[in-house]
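ESCALATION

Customer reports they have been waiting on this structure for their group meeting. Please prioritize. Original submission:
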Amino acid sequence: MPAILTVDDSRAVRTIVGKQVKELGFDVLEAEDGIQGLEQLAQTQVDLVLLDVTMPNMDGPAMLQSMRDGGNQTPVIMLTSESKRSIVAGAMKLGISDYILKPFKPEELRSKVLSVLQGEGGVGGLGAEPAVEAAPAEAAAAAPAPAGGRFVDVLVVDDMENVQKKLRSMVPQHVSLNGYTSAASALAACRERVYRVVLVDTEIPDVNSAVLAQQIRVLQPHAALVALALRTANDVTKEVKEQGFDDVLFKPFRPETIDDFLLQYFDNQDFLQVEDNVLRLAPFAGRADKVDRFYNRVHAVFADALEKVAAACYDEVVLDVGTPPLEGDRLPKLVNAVAEKARDFGMSLALVGAPDVRKALGGYTETKDLRLFATVQEARAGGAA
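Update from on-call: job pushed to the front of the queue and completed.
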């Protein structure tokens, strides 16, 4: 019977993982950190390691490095929060089979475990050769995707090199991006790497973009396929969907449309970070006229974040608002919406924030009685507010 080692400092996560793995009929071993994980591997042969990124004593990347340095090639699926997702890039070089974002849904965990154990090698392909790098003329926009990295966020296919450069300048650095000016190079990359979103220009000389999109769809069945098009009087969105695209991104790029693009296809960790059952509101550093947009973004993403926490079987969610803009009723409305949605999922809500947050929430009936703590640790412990 296959044996799986789960290495995570969170007992709740180990319990969830253990339950799902046992239901698949596998034996389960546990470790609280990388040191204990290596000790388990020294004593017992396992078929798969489910490895958390952030742990005390020895974290996941350090344990993985030690495994590979010692010649241990056991398949590894890395577990990481969205806010630590960039760490996975380094782990790819050491040959992880796949990764899962926390909180995760049980069916996602089971699917990826079975994929690796049945020899499909997960998303990246176990033991596969390194990815082919872009030709020098087309490699400018490839950073920060790591050399040989198989998981890349965005692929841009446009015969004008400035398009990929412009997009690179407008998306956060944690979003990895490859850019190619020819269909042949893009298809070669699609055979070697796994992309989350593929952007294809609708006007590439001597290329039928609809046919190219179909070819990419075969190679990248899980990627979102987005057309790059100019704004016209026509119903471009309808036209590109009829050609097989999922959506359209208009050129020239505008900050607000790039924001919408990031919001739709990424977890928008710039606005709301998720770590286990903690939702952490990102600090606001914009101008006063951007406050409404900031809160609108958070309103747009928190429901999915709460769903992830609920799917991970947490009874309580902690919302760390930090030191947000307090003008008007934006914060109370946000907190009340989160509290109501948490109740819909059967979870209670604890708040973490600066002292003036209590004053801001105290003026509203819906939020004045919510529990507020100074730190996440206090909120988790349920100490006196």
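Sent to customer with the following note: The two ends are 49 Å apart (CA to CA).
Escalation resolved.
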